[in-house]
UniProtKB/TrEMBL annotation:
Transmembrane segments: none annotated. Residues 105-330 form the Glycosyl transferase family domain. The lineage of its organism: Bacteria, Bacillati, Cyanobacteriota, Cyanophyceae, Leptolyngbyales. Keywords: Amino-acid biosynthesis, Aromatic amino acid biosynthesis, Glycosyltransferase, Transferase. This is Anthranilate phosphoribosyltransferase. It comes from Leptolyngbya iicbica LK. Pfam families: Glycos_trans_3N (PF02885), Glycos_transf_3 (PF00591). InterPro entries: Anthranilate_Pribosyl_Tfrase, Glycosyl_Trfase_fam3, Glycosyl_Trfase_fam3_N_dom, Glycosyl_Trfase_fam3_N_dom_sf, Nuc_phospho_transferase. GO terms for molecular function: anthranilate phosphoribosyltransferase activity. SUPFAM superfamilies: Nucleoside phosphorylase/phosphoribosyltransferase catalytic domain, Nucleoside phosphorylase/phosphoribosyltransferase N-terminal domain.
Length: 351
């Protein structure tokens, strides 16, 4: 048993009226003790559920991210025409709506904007479709690659994916607790804000519940991330909805710009979101979309791709971003870029 962790657990788990907010330093120590395995399983599980009930504060999440920065992987800066976009997505995937994110990442990377993604395998408690499975279905396997290979692939292709089991085994060791406690722990919120890139970038934080946006603002400001964007997206992802208003917060050192966008204003609206009917059907349709065939995924690709092409600075307006996304889907640049990524992975896997 860790006596130091026991003292931290007492602070967060002593009840509604007597529990205390950890300082940033204490939160960092708690995360380090969990990630290192010095805290016992009983202590870790108790901390996760107690902290979930108490609700984490921004200063505590900042401390957790300090531990991630110290113990976790970080991609080093690369030369590019645009700041990188680091997407924070729920690790437990999607189960109700069709993801647009892989199409968005390919559009950005093929256009010269670096993209950093991170996640794990199928994960409790939702067990939704994870990013790594989607990439594998289109012929890009990010697993079983060392961090040095990911860095080189990122430099060559402007796309990098950090896979929790391969690149952050300490964080992966905490995943089973999600199933055992039956709830998402505060670490699930942390993952939306984690920035494992040391260069000029903008963090994209997806969320469902409005308080999460406030947590992100306080947390990222505390750790010195100057530019980040919050998106009230589909299933907590960065995917913009089409059936309702897309609510976006652009956070810079000079303040917050609030965008409320409607897909219907660009002839891309719908009465309901594109469903994830079956994973096999979605993956097959995704491949058809990449090969230029007309599919029901085109509209979400145009809406999301258009927004992020504009937001990254590649196009000067949203309308032009949508036009650029349409051109990318109709041409062969995305399939060509997939081949470039495949070749880079093959080269560094065999090195």
């Amino acid at each position: 048993m860790s006596q130091a962790f026991r003292d931290l657990l007492k602070k967060v788990g002593s009840g509604q009226h007597t529990s205390e907010v950890l300082t940033r330093q204490e939160a960092a120590e708690a995360a380090q003790l969990m990630l290192s395995g010095e805290a016992t399983p009983a202590q870790i599980g108790a901390f996760m559920i107690a902290h979930r009930i108490k609700r984490p504060k921004s200063i505590e999440l900042a401390g957790f991210l300090d531990a991630y920065a110290q113990l976790g992987p970080t991609l080093q800066p690369i030369t590019a025409d645009y700041p990188a976009l680091v997407f924070g997505l729920p690790y437990d995937g999607r189960s109700r709506t069709a993801p647009a994110q892989p199409l968005v990442s390919l559009m950005l990377a093929a256009s010269g904007c670096p993209v950093v993604l991170h996640g794990g395998n199928r994960m409790p408690t939702k067990y939704g479709l994870p990013l790594v499975d989607i990439w594998q279905a289109i012929g890009i396997d990010w697993t079983d690659l060392p961090l040095t290979a990911i860095q080189a692939i990122f430099e060559e292709t402007h796309l990098g994916y950090l896979h929790l089991p391969d690149h952050f085994s300490a964080a992966q060791s905490l995943v089973p607790y999600r199933e055992e406690i039956g709830k998402r722990p505060p670490q699930a919120t942390l993952e939306l804000m984690w920035c494992p890139y040391a260069g000029d970038c903008q963090v994209i934080v997806g969320y469902v519940h409005p308080p999460t946006e406030g947590l992100a603002q306080g947390t990222l400001s505390a750790i010195g991330v100057p530019n980040f964007t919050t998106v009230k997206g589909l299933e907590g992802s960065s995917d913009l909805p089409r059936a309702r208003a897309a609510i976006i917060g652009i956070h810079t050192p000079s303040g917050i710009e609030r965008l409320v966008l409607h897909a219907r204003d660009y002839d891309l609206g719908t009465q309901s979101e594109t469903p994830l009917e079956t994973e096999a059907e979605y993956l097959s349709t995704l491949r058809d979309t990449l090969n230029g065939k007309p599919t029901h995924l085109q509209a979400i690709a145009l809406w999301n791709g258009g927004f992020y092409l504009w937001h990254s600075g590649i196009t000067p307006s949203l309308s032009e971003g949508i036009a650029a996304a349409r051109e990318l889907l109709q041409g062969d640049r995305l399939t060509q870029h997939i081949q470039v990524i495949q070749q880079a992975i093959a080269q560094h896997r065999s090195a």
